[in-house]
Amino acid sequence: MLVWVEFYRLDAFAVCSFACQNPPSRRKQAEARKVLASTTPAEQLPTFLCGLITACRRSRPQANEQIDNKVVFCTGGAGTICSAQVRALVHLGANACIVGRNVEKTESMAKDIATARKGSKVLGIGSVDVRSFESLKKAVDRCVEELGAIDFVIAGAAGNFLASINQLSVNAFKAVMDIDVLGSFNTLKATIPHLVESAVKHRSDGTTPSPTGTGGRIIFVSATIHYTGMPMQTHVSVAKAGVDALSNSVAIEFGPVGVTSNVISPGPIGETEGMKRLATEDAKKSNEAAIPLGRYGSVKEIADATIYIFSDSGNYVNASTVVVDGGAWRLQAAGISGSGFSYPDFLLSGMEVTGVSGQKQKAKI
């Protein structure tokens, strides 16, 4: 924790204010030292400073104190965005369990995430299909058995590809709905007993932070394309609308016992698997120019939003959607920027997209 202690003279007493990370100028530091020397005996300084810094820490716990020794369970945890979310939490003191279908990829990512903090425990459980409640329940049981609890959940498993409604098969549509909507529901059902237990244990009254930190919180990873609708993305739009609705219902039904449920909706995030599949590298500049902040987002910025919701700062945040997209959705057009499709020409021409079976490969005309 980085703390600068400033002292001012006020009625012959040393009065302090705290500023994290950014200390005052050298001139102000020198002035503060003079005031300190004139108001506090030198032999009392160590005890005085220790007491002040301790008081500061107690008055506003830092994120690492709130998340320390908590357990996060994450579906889709081997993906670019979800792994960054989990990594940030592990860095702050949490232990984690990530699940996925690919055994090698999931176990490898778990080992990589564990390097974020010495002594951390990160389980990587492969061969888990979120469409199967039994598969998820087994993973949840193992997580609790080995790590002791589940305090936070990130429902991040998802599927995506480009396809117009004319080309989209019933099976392809169902596949995305099953992964996103059914998978999110199964994740909730398998973990909610543990979230309720954690929420009761770590509940805050909104005035005094819980001395044991936070817990009992779930985040659903969604998107923004269903806010306006988008061609070639009907299946994803419908699925993510369902995920958002699920989160809201969870917040209402389980809020009374202290569980919070929220959505994080990433916009265009650079260097992710999804962005690489859906947009070409050549179109990056034009894509970024269409975003109010003029750039793609980073996975760190999604991780920051995650920490906010799971920390003491997010105590009263419930049934909310945190959009992390630089304002991009406000300017979403009908075209799929950077993908090589020009609206409405590609629809009227009857062109088809290859790779629409749901496999993770770049869709092409």
From TrEMBL:
Catalytic activity as recorded in UniProt: a (2E,4Z)-dienoyl-CoA + NADPH + H(+) = a 4,5-saturated-(3E)-enoyl-CoA + NADP(+); a (2E,4E)-dienoyl-CoA + NADPH + H(+) = a 4,5-saturated-(3E)-enoyl-CoA + NADP(+)
Descriptive protein name: 2,4-dienoyl-CoA reductase [(3E)-enoyl-CoA-producing]
GO biological process, one term: fatty acid catabolic process
GO molecular function: 2,4-dienoyl-CoA reductase (NADPH) activity
GO CC annotation, single: peroxisome
Source species, domain of life: Eukaryota
InterPro entries named among the record's database cross-references: DECR2-like, NAD(P)-bd_dom_sf, SDR_fam
Keywords assigned by UniProt, alphabetized: NADP, Oxidoreductase
Presence of keyword NADP: yes
EC number: 1.3.1.124
